[in-house]
Amino acid sequence: GNTQNCRHMRLLLDGYCRAFGQQINFGKSSLFFSPNTPASISTQLGAILGMTMVDDPGKYLGLPTMWGRSKKEALQFVKEKLLRKLSRWKQSLLSQAGREVLIKAVAQAVPNYPMGVFLFPK
Question: Which domain holds residue 111?
Fold first, then answer.
């Protein structure tokens, strides 16, 4: 069942660490379970793996790890991040041309990774 699979997963992780000389930082690792998972099971699996449980897994590589049904909503953070940067530069001492170059450079760099991973909505 679940606990046996989880123990097997832990053995695989430990074997990987031994084979490649790497180490998993379980202090920085966490588990996220479906709301349908009984608390007793999630607690037991967390103990086997030595990881804490979280309600919101947050972001990974700057992208939200959980997506809702709307990709437009999920990717809204890219637009907000760019607008925050732009609002800070309005008070900048750069010339108009300098601001324009800065805006173009950042507008191209900010969404690079998300645009490489996802097809953005129009």
Answer: 63-117
